[in-house]
Inverse folding.
């Protein structure tokens, strides 16, 4: 169940959100929840990318190594 919350949204942004929600046949709450879900998904993706960059640096891999590593992984997985 959803919890009632209060957020401060500037008037001009709220007006744009209301118009967009109406045009999409959604409520402002639905549109806000969707926007927050997308933000969090994007944030998680950015964190995953940062982790990948750290790991590749730690292991000494460069972008040039990627095709070879993918080919090796595919060969290994075919044998399973």
């Amino acid at each position: 169940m959803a919890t009632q919350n209060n957020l401060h949204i500037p008037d001009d942004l709220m007006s744009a959100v209301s118009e967009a929600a109406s045009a999409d046949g959604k409520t402002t709450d639905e549109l806000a929840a969707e926007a927050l879900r997308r933000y969090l998904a994007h944030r998680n993706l950015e964190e995953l990318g940062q982790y990948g960059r750290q790991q590749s640096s730690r292991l000494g891999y460069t972008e040039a190594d990627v095709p070879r590593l993918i080919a090796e992984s595919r060969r290994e997985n075919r044998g399973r």
Summary: The chain has a mean pLDDT of 94. Residues 11-78 form one domain. The first helix runs from residue 11 to 24.
